[in-house]
Amino acid sequence: MASLFPSGPPLPVFSSLIVKGPYHASAPIHLALSHSANLPETCILMITPSRDTMVTALRDHNDDWMSVHSGQGKILELSQCTTVFYPPSPAHFAYLVSMLTTDDQSQNVTTILDQAPSLVVLIELSAYFLSDVQTNPNGHSWTLSSYMTLVARTLASFAALSSGQSDIALVLFDSQLDDLKLPVLKHPTAGPNRKPSKLENVAFFVQKYFDMVAVFEEDDEFFLNSSQEDEREMDAERRNRMQIFRRGQSVPFETLRWVERPGGSTGGAIFVWS
């Protein structure tokens, strides 16, 4: 079964899933590896805006399991099932997903796939927009459809690519999705008294495309006194939970709890299940 962890509970069966909140940087990697282990004859596609950002996040998180196992033959074999693309802008993203093909007669060899993927993973699409939104909240050109179009194009492109022969699962990892707010329409820029466009929560609309939503957050149900708080800070320990919701529901049907702390043979992050 697919999982976001090196060991621990598997994810429920899904066809489309959003993962949001402060998930660990290695979660997409564990998902890809576990998916490949279950379906070794299939391939996986990952799309994320920046290779440097992804590598830095993995290095900073320092997953102990990955440090120990990433060079082993079996893991290397599984990782070869995954292809990663790094389109640097929404325009590049849209062009990429429209050009992906399994037709070896295509003129663009970089977008030819050996076969249609069984899993597509989109990572941190908010990064395309948040910098502009935060630095120039009333002057940027992005709208709600800017984000929605990326998801819609992905769904349409891979539906055509599979030709109905097999289902393609879609997972969107976006730790900043709840922070991204965009207008439905942009008002004309002329005029000194122009009113700011009304902002909409992007997550509310994007989640309508997906069957399930997994929300990572710090577990606030653990009570710590001051001495425990000091000890926790010294140990860099984090108590987390992941709640999984079905589309349109406000009550999770599954909740997982764990502690993340340094340990293992490398001193990297390990996951201890409660």
What can you tell me about this protein's structure?
The chain contains nine helices and eleven strands. The chain is of the alpha/beta class and 274 residues long. The protein has a single domain, classed as Rossmann fold, CATH 3.40.50. The strands form two sheets. Strands 3-2-4-5-1-8-9-10-11 form a nine-stranded mixed sheet, with helices on one face. It has a two-stranded antiparallel sheet with strand order 6-7. α5 packs parallel to α7. The radius of gyration is 20 Å and the shape is globular.
Brief overview:
The protein is α/β, with parallel strands linked by helices. It has 9 helices and 11 strands. The strands form 2 sheets. A 9-stranded mixed β-sheet has the order 3-2-4-5-1-8-9-10-11, covered by helices on one side. Strands 6-7 form a two-stranded antiparallel sheet.
CATH class: Alpha Beta
Radius of gyration: 20 Å
Strand % is 15-25%
What class, by secondary structure content? alpha/beta
User: What best-fitting shape do the alpha-carbon axes yield?
Assistant: globular
What is the second-level CATH architecture?
3-Layer(aba) Sandwich
Order of strands across the widest beta sheet?
A: 3-2-4-5-1-8-9-10-11
Major beta-sheet overview: 9 strands, mixed
How far apart lie the N and C ends? Answer: 20 Å
The CATH topology name reads: Rossmann fold
> Count the strands?
11
Total number of helices: 9
Order of helices and strands: EHEHHHEHEHHEEEHEHEEE
